[in-house]
Write a structure and sequence with these properties.
By secondary structure, the chain is mainly α. The protein is 70% helix and 0% strand.
């Protein structure tokens, strides 16, 4: 295995859509500014100035992906130190646990990825103000605390909360905010289903690893709840996301065309069935990747719908 391939696998590319989706949804809302302003008294809502900026979208994408890559690198080295990535683990080879990348080298990779994210954050702070610096600092600290430190909260059943907050609420609202320093209600509302689908990716990952995590003493929410309740949680997150998208659009609280995301719901059925009925590794790996693709499909449709209005 080449060094470049090893680093690519350590970045966990199948999960990186969780960083991309909030950015494109926020960008779609910015593109459709005026149309997405909700709770207005008049009908239709008055049109506003176009605030969308391509430079902001691109820099936000780079920074968001860099921070998630840093999180995945940190997860790799920290899980190895905690003994969670054993030979019995189902899923892709972990670089540090398998000896392909030394821990010190992996931490250098974490620092490099964070440096890219910080550089992007500085650019965005110049555009949108110091709030972006606060978001960046909190995100980095939360990333390092996920599986690092004396009491990593990813080992205490709090990983899903972290993902919902940072890959849903913070990322989506922040990605809208950077365009013109505003955070309309539509961004807050769409952040909820975006966060649900991002959280479903982690739930799919943790239900796959439930047996090896339990043996290693990694107390994920799946370990604490058990397989069947975790499968129910996954189902609720996936279908709950689409229910909220539909309800918000129907009520006029978000752009009507965001209901386009419902076109992605046929992808959900096979994934839910797999999570509910299968315990073998390969199908669950497929369900994890499929959940990321589901979020991407829904996210693209949300972004298009938000841009169209």
């Amino acid at each position: 295995m080449s060094s470049a391939h090893t680093w690519l696998q350590a970045a966990r590319p199948a999960t990186l859509w969780a960083a991309v989706v909030p950015v494109i949804v926020g960008g779609g809302l910015a593109w459709g500014t005026g149309r997405e302003e909700i709770f207005c008294v008049t009908t239709p809502c008055p049109q506003g100035e176009r605030v969308f900026r391509w430079d902001v979208l691109v820099i936000t994408l780079i920074a968001a992906v860099a921070i998630q890559v840093a999180a995945n690198f940190a997860n790799d080295v920290s899980d190895s130190r905690q003994g969670a990535d054993t030979a019995d683990r189902i899923g892709p080879t972990r670089a540090v646990a398998s000896g392909l990348i030394a821990p010190r080298t992996m931490w250098m990779g974490v620092a490099a990825a964070f440096a890219i994210g910080v550089a992007g954050g500085i650019y965005l702070a110049v555009v949108a103000g110091p709030v972006i610096i606060v978001i960046g600092v909190v995100s980095i600290l939360a990333t390092l605390g996920y599986v690092g430190g004396p009491k990593p909260y990813g080992y205490l059943g709090l990983g899903e909360v972290f993902v919902f907050v940072f890959f849903g609420m913070v990322a989506t609202v922040g990605s809208r905010y950077v365009h013109d320093s505003t955070a309309p209600a539509a961004a807050w509302l769409l952040a909820i289903p975006v966060g649900f689908l991002a959280t479903a990716i982690l739930v799919a990952n943790n239900i796959r690893d439930i047996d090896t995590d339990r043996a290693a003493g990694k107390r994920t929410l799946a370990v604490l709840m058990g397989r069947t309740p975790t499968a129910r949680l996954y189902t609720a997150l996936v279908y709950g996301a689409f229910a909220l998208i539909t309800a918000f659009a129907a009520a006029g609280w978000t752009p009507r065309w965001t209901a386009l995301a419902m076109l992605a719901i046929p992808l959900a059925g096979p994934l839910v069935r797999t999570i509910k009925t299968v315990t073998e590794g390969p199908p669950l790996i497929g369900a994890l990747k499929g959940t990321a693709r589901l979020q991407l499909a829904a996210g693209v449709l949300l972004a298009v719908g938000a841009a169209v209005g």
